[in-house]
Amino acid sequence: MKYNKKVILTDADGVLLNWEYAFCCWMEQHGHTQQKSANQLYDISKRFGITKETGNYLVKQFNESAAIGFLPALRDSMYYVKRLHEEHGYVFRCITSLSLDSNAYKLRKMNLEKLFGATAFEQLVCLDTGADKDEALEPYKDSGLYWIEDKLSNAVCGQNLGLKPILIEHGFNMHEPIPEGMTKVVNWKELYNHIIGEK
Question: Residues 61, 14: one domain?
Fold first, then answer.
């Protein structure tokens, strides 16, 4: 299936939204303290010195709480998403492993529209908490569309399906070697210049 090249596929947390900051604030409010060098750890259980089961439970609880509707934008994402959309005609489709809860979906949609405007995102797909994205990306196989992620395994999944992955750098992925043909950026300004430069 052919897709308009003006479509950009993107994750939400750690790409558009600063989930990490909001979650850590929420965890501290609930009596949990981060370990040293926590920003270099992707695994929540290791970050907070709790069991994997407890970590997964708390992530799900947070993702289905009212707090999920009020996450701040990540870095300069707001400015450059709006530029890509308003000045260059790009539209975004968000694929996020948030929750299957219908209220979590509504809160995420509200959050994205409040930060990025009502028209930038033409589609929002919410998968189960922590779910893989293979099936959600399958319809875009060999489309060559951009796929913006912060989790390396999801970026690789997109690359294997014939997408053009761009990895957003974080403490937890900055030392991971990336496959040939994948781009890593520190912020949306770099991402914007990469996309506009390739036109």
Answer: no
